[in-house]
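Workshop exercise sheet. Pairs work together: one partner reads the sequence aloud, the other fills in the structure field after running the prediction. Swap roles for the next sheet.
Pair: D.N. / O.F.
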Amino acid sequence: MTAADLAALAALERRYDGAIPEALRRAALDGIAPTQAEPIVAPPPIEKPRRARRAVLRAMAEVLRVRAAADGACTEADLKAAGFTAAELADHLDAARALARRHLQTEG
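Structure field:
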């Protein structure tokens, strides 16, 4: 649809307060060449930036410590709910547990 096509339709809409007579509307639309729809291309996925290993380890240990102090335990579901990815859990969970244990021992 070109700018001229749009201008012709806009002129018709301005002339009529209500529905445009069908014959005039069809005549205006018949003059417009059909356009080919462009395929919709999905944008590339957005990758979450990786956090520094030390920051993930400390944050995970803190969640483990706080949840264990509050509920007696911290599950992987708790950690996922806290925002840790499966990859982060696989990479850091054991070290975070050890760090959380050390923090709990020094506190209590």
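Discussion prompt: The chain is about 65% helix and 0% strand. What would you look at next?
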